[in-house]
Design brief:
This protein is mostly helical and 679 residues long. The chain is 66% helix and 0% strand. It is globular.
């Protein structure tokens, strides 16, 4: 907030009667800022003191946009107006830009006054100016400069009390979380005595751990931050379910205390969902995000935007249109302005891939790619998105050859950055080779530097392994690649996910001994949840039943007794249940075998009948594959001339009206028949 010190500096020079009335109004115990603005309106427009005071009064009312032109009119360091403080005006003017999101203008004004020959020394000694300067740097994503500015304030002891010092340390940990995890943790512990971490400190430390991809530590820190948040709002940490509170917050009669708790805890829930998704727990991520999605008007804009992005990632294969709707909401100007450059790039990149998967709306994709390049010309995501669009354009045009336009563009981009030998470059070029059907070239590019690549890109292992197994047919070589990569993943955050992938790969390609041993190691890990454990046990028993019956017997009692399906190792079909194990000689008593009466549940709805074959036809009519797509977006409609589209809409409207009339006529006939039967 604007320091009251500037009020006193200005009012000390109040000389006229009108100025004295304004000063008296501001020195009241509870100043009425609307009344102060009205008093200022009685002064002439050229009165710099009145204009400055009105601007401050509007700022105190939260009307920064209205205050900005008033303060800009009297902000002149070269010839300052008499009766006002030039440094106070410049600070208030910069603060207006900061509150309206114009961080570049705020930074420019502050740096100008800090470099001024007359006012520079005073500005550099003013804690409010230095703090606002650091905040502007942070919001412009200049994190090292912001951290250096905050460190200078703390080193000089330019804070009024421990509360202000704690806020400065919180901002410092937020800046360090973007580029230096060790210093982020250190600054988060400096906020209070006894190394007690505050809520903001724990959250910033968790953000730093996520940037470092240390998801185990991030999960611990986020749980600590959530507990601190619940404690601050008076909830019992052990018995409060934040998901239930978020679901309760969706109702209109939700108490204000619950809304405030969910509002403060929502950023933690979004980060927890990201960690769950990154570690393979998509169900856990969806559970955390689902109650936040209906709270569009009850959460901060940036928090809800991040929730939408994560929700789109979790639901990417479930509902394309819902995912697209969430991403489009995030791209609204008033929402997108609250995101960082990297977040905006992620949103546009995901939207491009979604549009390509929904049918290749290449013009809209190219528009998004151009926006990505404008935001960050050196971003690799922009180059990858443009490469994907060019691949689809070449495919749509039927172009093929030794070198595609997509590969030429990508090679030029990496050559400009000097990253021809980077692991990501090799993987992308391999995927482009696979698009052209050149399997040998793709495999050679990935095999050329496996050690440096596998730790950064687990998908490279799957690309190589499936390339050998499916395209080349050399399963032994594929298994050797998967085994060799195990050492590269040891001790990395992706170790658990890779272990499950390797075991599934062995089982899918009938290497049962390797699969059984790999599944047994997976079960020995601590990070396997209950749902995942059921699937792994089922796959272990199936693999071990063929090569190691003793091991299969050891785990058979953990199998589900009913016929509930569990995805098998290949991910295509039902996993082994008791019936499946009986085929290989593994049996145990069941309820039916012990004479119990097993009641088959009744069908909840009638079975769907296959479509009837019309007379004279040899097969049933084919259903429209785009029947779920809105009519205007279907491929056979959107490319028609506008006149033809209007005619089709008119005909469809008349057909629908005729169907409604027929349905109403059938209802009347049925009602008449029922009345006649009753007589």
């Amino acid at each position: 907030t604007v320091s009251v010190l500037y009020w006193k500096r200005a009012f000390a020079m109040a000389t006229t009667q009108q100025h004295q009335a304004i000063a008296a109004a501001t020195e009241a115990e509870d100043p009425d800022h609307a009344k102060i603005a009205q008093l200022c309106d009685r002064c002439p427009k050229a009165d710099a003191f009145a204009q400055y005071t009105k601007g401050i009064a509007l700022l105190q009312q939260g009307k920064a946009a209205a205050a900005q032109p008033l303060l800009a009119a009297v902000d002149d360091l070269r010839s300052p107006a008499s009766g006002v403080n030039p440094l106070g005006i410049r600070f208030a003017h910069a603060y207006c830009h900061y509150k309206t999101g114009a961080f570049s203008q705020a930074l420019s004004l502050l740096e100008e006054v800090m470099a001024h020959a007359k006012f520079g020394a005073r500005a550099k000694a003013d804690p409010a100016v230095l703090n606002l300067h650091a905040q502007a740097l942070y919001n412009l994503e200049k994190y090292p400069e912001a951290a250096a500015a905050l460190e200078a304030i703390l080193a000089a002891g330019m804070y009024r009390d421990d509360v202000e010092r704690s806020e400065l340390l919180t901002n410092l940990s937020a800046a360090y979380s973007q580029f230096d995890f060790a210093k982020c943790q250190e600054s988060s512990r400096r906020g209070t005595e006894g190394d007690n971490v505050t809520f903001d400190g724990a959250f910033n430390a968790a953000t730093g751990a996520i940037e470092k991809k240390d998801y185990t530590l991030a999960r611990t820190l986020l749980a600590q931050a959530l507990g601190l948040c619940l404690h601050e709002h008076g909830h019992d940490v052990g018995s409060t379910d934040i998901v239930a509170l978020a679901q309760q917050c969706a109702s209109d009669d939700c108490p204000k205390a619950v809304r405030d708790t969910v509002r403060d805890a929502a950023p933690v829930m979004v980060q927890q969902a990201f960690v769950a998704f990154a570690t393979g727990d998509e169900a856990g991520a969806q559970k955390l995000l689902a109650p936040l999605i209906p709270l569009q008007d009850k959460l901060p804009v940036a928090t809800y935007a991040a929730a939408c992005v994560n929700w789109a990632a979790v639901r990417r294969h479930s509902d394309f249109f819902d995912t697209f709707k969430r991403l489009k909401y995030v791209q609204q100007p008033q929402v997108e302005a609250r995101l960082t450059t990297r977040q905006r790039l992620y949103v546009k990149y995901n939207t491009v891939l979604l549009l390509l998967g929904m049918g290749g709306r290449l013009n809209e994709c190219r528009r998004l790619v151009d926006a990505m390049v404008r935001d960050d010309p050196d971003s690799e995501l922009g180059a990858l998105a443009l490469t994907a669009v060019l691949v689809h354009k070449d495919g749509a045009a039927g172009k093929s050859g030794k070198t595609s336009r997509a590969e030429e563009h990508f090679r030029a981009f990496v050559a400009q950055r000097g990253a021809e030998d980077a692991a990501s470059t090799r993987l992308t070029l391999a995927q482009l080779a696979l698009e052209r059907g050149n399997v040998a070239a793709a495999l050679d590019r990935i095999r050329s530097a496996p050690a440096a690549m596998l730790k950064q890109f687990p998908s490279a292992v799957a690309t190589v392994a499936h390339g050998y197994a499916t395209r080349v047919g050399d399963v032994d070589a594929a298994v050797a690649v998967v085994q060799a990569a195990a050492a590269a993943f040891a001790g990395t955050p992706d170790e658990d996910a890779y272990a499950i992938f390797a075991a599934d790969f062995y089982a899918a390609h009938h290497r049962d001994a390797l699969a059984a041993a790999a599944y047994e190691k997976v079960l020995a890990r601590a990070g396997v949840d209950a749902k995942q454990r059921q699937r792994v046990v089922a796959a272990l028993v199936r693999a071990a039943a063929r090569v190691n019956p003793a091991l299969a017997l050891k785990f058979r009692d953990q199998l589900p007794e009913d016929a509930a399906t569990h995805a098998d190792a290949s991910g295509a079909g039902s996993g082994p249940t008791v019936a499946a194990m009986a085929e290989v000689g593994l049996r145990r008593p069941t309820a039916r075998a012990q004479g119990a009466v097993v009641v088959k549940p009744a069908r909840t709805r009638p079975m769907r009948r296959p479509p009837k074959i019309p007379e004279g036809a040899t097969s049933a009519p084919q259903m429209d594959p785009e029947r779920w797509v809105p009519m205007k977006q279907r491929t056979y409609i959107r490319d028609l001339p506008a006149r033809r589209q209007r005619e089709l809409r008119r005909r469809r409207a008349s057909e629908q009206e005729e169907k409604r009339r027929q349905a109403e006529r059938r209802k009347r006939e049925a009602a008449a028949a029922a009345a006649a039967a009753a007589k």
